[in-house]
């Protein structure tokens, strides 16, 4: 019987696409006057490709600088990166139904957690901005643990924070390896949030798949 449900943050509880839509306004306010043509759809496309749904942080700023047309001297990638980290967390937009689903699961008596890769500052700022800290019982960010999903130790950290057993917990996330396989390897059940990452051809198909958060509560009955 399931006693705990743990969620990924970006592309699971937070809508990465709409978050970048919100960030676009701040990006143009900061860098738009330096562009040859500050066409919002074109700039948005560059931001989205460079971000890679949150999995390209190491190259994101450099790719943004390289793929936009600047009217004069390009800004440094470090300046773009600094702006992203300072302002993007406040642009976070919740996935449809996120708060309602968490509320429904809490009413059912389930322990709830968030386990996310990233920096403590950025991820906790997003969670607070979205009001998700009031909806869950524990939050673990990989930077605080010293390792990232799919390392079993980060899953163990959130289980410990919830005082939960792996066999009684389910993890919901968008990444086939970091989230689904990582959770399974750590002994948890796993639900794949489809639509954000391609499923690897060499990985066995996901057993439990959802396209919307609202599908999670009824699916838990199948575990």
SSE arrangement:
Elements: E1 4-7, H1 16-31, H2 40-51, H3 57-67, H4 77-87, H5 98-107, E2 111-116, H6 120-130, E3 138-141, H7 142-145, H8 152-162, E4 169-173, H9 176-185, E5 189-193, E6 209-210, H10 216-220
Parallel strand pairs: 1-2, 1-4, 2-3, 4-5, 5-6
Helix pairs in contact: 1-2, 2-3, 3-4
Explain this structure.
There is one protein chain. With about 220 residues, this protein is an alpha/beta fold. It has helices spanning about 15-30, 40-50, 55-65, 75-85, 100-105, 120-130, 140-145, 150-160, 175-185, 215-220, and strands at about 5, 110-115, 140, 170-175, 190-195, 210. The radius of gyration is 18 Å and the shape is elongated. The mean pLDDT is about 95.
Helical region count? Answer: 10
Using the coordinates shown, work out and report the CATH topology of the largest domain.
Rossmann fold
Total beta strands: 6
**CATH class placement of the largest domain:** Alpha Beta
**What amount of the residues lies in strands?**
5-15%
User: What is the radius of gyration computed over CA atoms, rounded to a whole number of angstroms?
Assistant: 18 Å
Helix content: 40-55%
Query: Major sheet: order of its strands?
Result: 3-2-1-4-5-6
Average residue pLDDT: 95
Question: What general outline do the C-alpha atoms trace?
Answer: elongated
Structural class: alpha/beta
Number of domains: 2
Order of helices and strands: EHHHHHEHEHHEHEEH
* End-to-end CA span: 7 Å
